[in-house]
Amino acid sequence: MAEPSITMEVGNDGVALITMSNPPVNALARTMFPALKSKFDEAMRRNDVKAVVLTGKGGRFSGGFDINVFDKIHKTGDVSLLPDVSVEIAVNTMEDAKKPIVAAIEGLALGGGLEMALASHARIAVPKVQLGLPELSLGVIPGFGGTQRLPRLVGLSKAIEMMLLSKTITSEEGEKIGLIDAVVSPNELMKVARKWALDIADRRKPWIRTLHRTDRIGSLAEARLVLKLAREQAKKIAPNTPQQLACIDVIEEGIIHGGYSGILKEDKVFRELVVTDTAKGLVHVFFSQRLLSKVPNVTDRGLKPRQVKKVAVIGGGLMGSGIATALILSNIHVVLKEINAEYLQKGIKTIEANLRGFVVKGKLTQDKAEKALRILKGSLDYSDFKDVDMVVEAVVENVPLKQKLFSEIEKVCPAHCILATNTSTIDLNLVGEKTRSIDRIIGAHFFSPAHVMPLLEIVRTERTSPQVILDLMTVGKIIKKVPVVVGNRTGFAVNRAFFPYSQAAHFLANLGVDPIRIDRVITNFGLPLGPFQLQDLSGYGVATAVWKEFSSVFPDRVLFSPLIDLLRKNGRDGKNNGRGFYIYEKGSRPKPDPSVLPILEESRRIANIMPNGKPISISDQQILEMVLFPVVNEGCRVVEEGIVIRPSDLDVATVLGMSFPSYRGGLLFWGDLVEPKHVYASLKKWSEQYGDFFKPSKYLEERVARGIPLSEADSENAASRSRL
Ligand SMILES: NC(=O)c1ccc[n+]([C@@H]2O[C@H](COP(=O)([O-])OP(=O)(O)OC[C@H]3O[C@@H](n4cnc5c(N)ncnc54)[C@H](O)[C@@H]3O)[C@@H](O)[C@H]2O)c1
């Protein structure tokens, strides 16, 4: 791989072209900063240089600061690994340079990359460049002066929106809002940038040092109002993370005391934020996601993914229609098969509604929605199956039906066709029992709603062929999902890890804790739904089926609760009929339902676990731990049993499939943050008091004994996992 480098070429026109190179996105490695400085210094010294153009090699300006450095800081705690860029390079060397610097931008300028462009005196870009400061999504703030210069170029509100939401914009939009000085065609880029630089040098164009500008900020009173609203918004959208409010504070510093003062505060705050648990969690998820595309015995075999152009989706219910939506949106033709015309129409209508939903939210143009619908075809038989490259079965959860379907499909589909099932609970070997091509059977486990949720668990059996796994991974990426390869065991990875979630919550409710309080503790922690609201949403039929399924497979750790049965007996079915733990009324938010209390009391009487018949006294933190530590423990079993390839795969999967807060790094990483020894000791205590449901797993026990984080891959266990 090419080494990171900075080169300089001086043209006869007196323009020095400085090029950043570090493929693939010219990330700014630490070693590049002294080299950048020395090239700029040389350009300033040389008499044959009048102006400088800064660019990136290979059609990309720069993807930003090399975040491998964050990873190193998190492992060593050594913040001095951060280079002094904000003052030394972005101010002294670039902004205050004696000769003008113009950024010539192609492809992308993100994070530190965009900040280098902001420190230049003008910015010229080609069309469709991606521009943004997404640092907050990694738990930090822009660190090379971005918090100060972006508001001075595009105005306070727009800058705050771009930073707080980590929003990227195109160069065309950038030109409209003042971030980009001109958008030109790729073959003109260098010519225009060079001329622009010379025009500044010769005073034909203004020489703008952004940090000194105030014209886009407005009056102090106006700025204060914008900052106040931004703070309120930040508290609402990100109540558990520090970087949003810190970013606003830093911007405010620059507005009150001037850009340079803002830069100094930015640098200080950046160094504080980079070592927070939030940054550690977000960086962990970022790197863990990258690892997912490495699947032993699949991606290391030199196989090439085969193209999947047409897919048959069987079943147009909740899941099938969502899956079909995701496929047609990525230009993959779909045949949707149903049992009768009425259900088929219903399925197609749901797909249309899914697309309309995207259009209404501005995520899709009407044109694209119509184009997607044109490649969808409904069917009541197998006549359109002869040229499909993949089948995704999403019919009701019924073993004989699925077996029958796969034995039929095998006969009507081409020999290369991938045979995928969306089952959430059934053993894939059982699904494929009546099928000869067992090596083509694979799980494509989408999460509901399938056109929205990003996780795709790819379930492989011992017999699934590596080619089929690779093909499905590729399709997953094409339809913008994040594929995580998992093993074929009840619940796979995410549902399995989360099966103790509602059980533990019911246990607490039977111990006398208010379910609404439990939900509140969990949502304050950052999960979007507490366990009771989640059950209300999925309906008690599903809750009972899931509870039964897991109880039969893992009878050693099941808790008894009569609560759901009692609710059903009392005519409640959660959101389905508007009454559950909460009352659901059209147009208003779910409200806790006080009339659940007698049902709850009856459940407590039957369960009979309250000490001396009295509700336990418990803190919010203890509630959180009693609900989530069993989930961490089950997550440990998921790793122990080799259901995921690496522990960090489960972290990504819980973030994407269960909306576990990414700023907590995913399930196991959070277990590491709260200390595995504490998780272990708590579970052990509860298991002695309440039984085996809480019994610490071997993996947890062993990791604590060896002092190895739960979320870290362990080479010793890799061999046992390779059976995946
Ligand atoms: N609901 C979820 O959250 C979820 C999540 C992941 C996976 N799953 C799995 O996805 C599958 C489907 O679940 P769902 O929630 O979409 O169910 P659903 O009841 O909403 O839809 C099933 C559809 O399959 C159709 N169908 C039945 N037999 C058929 C046949 N022979 N040919 C064609 N169509 C047929 C039915 O008419 C119905 O429209 C199940 O295996 C389920 O375990 C569900």
From TrEMBL:
UniProt entry tagged with the keyword RNA-binding: no
Pathways per UniProt: Lipid metabolism; fatty acid beta-oxidation
Keywords: Fatty acid metabolism, Isomerase, Lipid metabolism, Lyase, Multifunctional enzyme, NAD, Oxidoreductase, Peroxisome
Top-level taxon of the source organism: Eukaryota
Signal peptide start-end: none
UniProt subcellular location: Peroxisome
Database matches in PROSITE patterns: 3HCDH, ENOYL_COA_HYDRATASE
InterPro entries, A to Z: 3-OHacyl-CoA_DH_CS (IPR006180), 3-OHacyl-CoA_DH_NAD-bd (IPR006176), 3HC_DH_C (IPR006108), 6-PGluconate_DH-like_C_sf (IPR008927), ClpP/crotonase-like_dom_sf (IPR029045), Enoyl-CoA_hyd/isom_CS (IPR018376), Enoyl-CoA_hydra/iso (IPR001753), NAD(P)-bd_dom_sf (IPR036291)
PANTHER family: 3-HYDROXYACYL-COA DEHYROGENASE (PTHR23309), PEROXISOMAL BIFUNCTIONAL ENZYME (PTHR23309:SF49)
Subunit comment: Monomer.
Family: In the central section; belongs to the 3-hydroxyacyl-CoA dehydrogenase family.
Name recorded for this polypeptide: 3-hydroxyacyl-CoA dehydrogenase
Source species: Citrullus colocynthis (colocynth)
